[in-house]
């Protein structure tokens, strides 16, 4: 009905890309609907191995392991890697799945203030008594569209002999000059040890997740990671579309660049109109409104004007920080972006937000 979606994680528009859809259909026809098995029994086909190899190549890492979701990748990694003699240091605003994954492990837990390097350093000093230290952070945080200070995190990790883990769900495919993610954007690809990410956002949007990193770590996960060992293999159609999405991104960064240009257009026009947009240069563009009711009525009115956005308020975000989270995609046209800004301006004026 002419409604434009501005609240999906479909950053590159690949979920509707004809080649991605064709790859899914071909995989479905050639490899079947599903494997009725976990990977280590009879759930591994050539396409699963190929996709793991492609993911590792994309991130310039040694190996990769697939999961049914990134939630599962996060649920599996900490328990498999860390013992009660180890420590994990986690940003307080990390995604729920990282928090849950950490809960499942027996390592000593330290929570540092959001992106606060002084606090991380203090916690790293406290954690020196443990055998191994792992710093865990989202690469890009989904509520604020802000990007973890990975350079500083990696420097501290080096100083205090810690490993760095990043969750790249809101970065893979589009952040950095070649869309490799936050580590590429900030020039620390050789310093981040472990990456978890999703196939369910920029990479085709269907489902699936993975860990990529050093081969011995991936081997360990294949032996010990419970969501990998005890959950079904990814369906061939999903593998097919993720694999094609990666091919497209490795051939050219044009799609990612087009999304970045549209993000810039939206952020600068909204700022010029008088709105406060949180974060910087990220397609997650939270329009900060403060009041929960205002966010909800404005989102409703935006829909009446053909723009699909959602208001976020407490407990999803802190009290007094209600917002409408806009997400830009490569499939939006410049006209779509302008229509969204115009609708925000009208609705903002009507409700006294401007
Ligand atoms: N990590 C982050 C930062 C996310 O935003 C999400 C999805 O919302 C996940 C993990 C989970 O990803 P998936 O949908 O593949 O389980």
From TrEMBL:
Superkingdom of this protein's organism: Eukaryota
InterPro entries on file: 2am3keto_CoA_ligase, Aminotrans_II_pyridoxalP_BS, Aminotransferase_I/II_large, AON_synthase_class-II, PyrdxlP-dep_Trfase, PyrdxlP-dep_Trfase_major, PyrdxlP-dep_Trfase_small
BP terms from Gene Ontology: L-threonine catabolic process
Any one GO molecular function term: pyridoxal phosphate binding
Keywords in alphabetical order: Acyltransferase, Pyridoxal phosphate, Transferase, Transit peptide
Single GO cellular component term: cytosol
Domain (Aminotransferase class I/classII large) ranges: 3-344
Cofactor: pyridoxal 5'-phosphate
EC id: 2.3.1.29
Reaction(s) catalysed (UniProt annotation): glycine + acetyl-CoA = (2S)-2-amino-3-oxobutanoate + CoA
Family: Belongs to the class-II pyridoxal-phosphate-dependent aminotransferase family.
NCBIfam families to which the protein is assigned, alphabetical: 2am3keto_CoA, PRK06939.1
Name used for this protein in its record: 2-amino-3-ketobutyrate coenzyme A ligase, mitochondrial
Organism this protein belongs to: Polioptila caerulea
